[in-house]
């Protein structure tokens, strides 16, 4: 694994987007880009990246700006999907691959959906981990209870207990897995004081009421002020690549009726349901890695 970064731009100037890279480019294979959820970072995908790289794939796992080891903005208005899409387009350009297999959890899936919906998109296939084109308002309210509100911790153990409370829906994790997640989610800011590796300004404020527009221009307003489901079906209608939908069986973010509607409007949608998980499955288990790898291989042989 190599750690690298790209420079991307806003009116503030350039900012750094850190990413880990696994494996080597292959002329005959798509590169795989794995993008984390709203409050998470690239390390969530390290177990899957290691597995896929062992199968000969090149994988890139970025920290979206404001998370992990990437830069923070001075003005939080730049934390929006338009910026994330521009940054990830720069990452795609950095690869030597002509086609991309995109794996995205929650926010990462929405970025992938937006990229896949564009004309002449390099996205060859799309894995959506517990996210779809309709986002229930109740799920956004739940996220709004903790986004931007990470406390300070006196130890990794204290942080781990906190993450167990807000991320319990990720699935049944071992103590070792919780320790891994915690270790890669915090940083020591002074001796004996830790905080989450996310800009606290990524948080909700009151919604303007322009629901879909606001969600993409300032998505974090949705978390406290939104009154209705976010409707992104117009994007979904433009996605033509094969799609694998992963759903936590107990998810409040991706509902069964939404998946059925996705399948009615798209001929190449397959679904995997993860037991004992809500939003969003953390995808740490080898059996989950096997299913994803099998689907990627089937896409390769069936469609290309």
Automatic annotation (TrEMBL):
Keywords: Acyltransferase, Hydrolase, Transferase. One of its GO terms (cellular component) is membrane. GO terms for molecular function: acyltransferase activity; hydrolase activity. Residues 31-285 form the AB hydrolase-1 domain. Pfam families: Abhydrolase_1. Gene3D superfamilies: alpha/beta hydrolase. InterPro entries: AB_hydrolase_1, AB_hydrolase_fold, AB_hydrolase_sf. This is Hydrolase/acyltransferase. It comes from Legionella brunensis. The lineage of its organism: Bacteria, Pseudomonadati, Pseudomonadota, Gammaproteobacteria, Legionellales.
């Amino acid at each position: 694994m190599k750690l690298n970064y790209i420079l991307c731009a806003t009116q503030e100037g350039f900012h750094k987007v850190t990413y880990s890279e696994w494996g080597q480019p292959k002329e005959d294979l798509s590169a795989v880009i794995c993008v984390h959820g709203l409050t998470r970072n690239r390390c969530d995908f390290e177990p899957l990246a290691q597995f896929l790289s062992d199968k000969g794939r090149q994988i890139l796992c970025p920290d979206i700006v404001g998370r992990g080891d990437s830069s923070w903005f001075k003005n939080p208005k730049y934390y929006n999907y338009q910026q994330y899409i521009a940054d990830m387009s720069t990452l795609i350009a950095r690869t030597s691959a002509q086609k991309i297999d995109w794996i995205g959890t929650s926010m990462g899936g929405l970025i992938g959906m937006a990229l896949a919906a564009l004309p002449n998109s390099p996205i060859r296939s799309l894995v959506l981990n517990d996210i779809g084109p309709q986002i229930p308002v109740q799920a956004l309210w739940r996220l709004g209870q903790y986004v931007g509100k990470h406390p300070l911790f006196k130890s990794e153990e204290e942080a781990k207990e906190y993450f167990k409370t807000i991320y319990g829906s990720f699935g049944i994790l071992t103590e070792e897995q919780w320790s891994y997640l915690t270790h890669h989610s915090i940083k020591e800011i002074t001796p004996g004081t830790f905080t989450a590796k996310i800009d606290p300004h990524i948080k909700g404020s009151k919604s303007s009421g322009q629901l879909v527009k606001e969600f993409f221009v300032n998505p974090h307003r949705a978390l406290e002020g939104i009154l209705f489901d976010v409707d992104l079906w117009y994007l979904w209608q433009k996605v033509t690549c094969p799609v694998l939908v992963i759903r936590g069986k107990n998810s409040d973010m991706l509902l069964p009726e939404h998946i059925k509607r996705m399948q009615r409007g798209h001929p190449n949608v397959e679904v995997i349901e993860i037991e004992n998980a809500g939003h969003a499955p953390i995808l740490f288990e080898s059996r989950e890695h096997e299913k994803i790898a099998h689907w990627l291989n089937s896409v390769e042989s069936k469609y290309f």
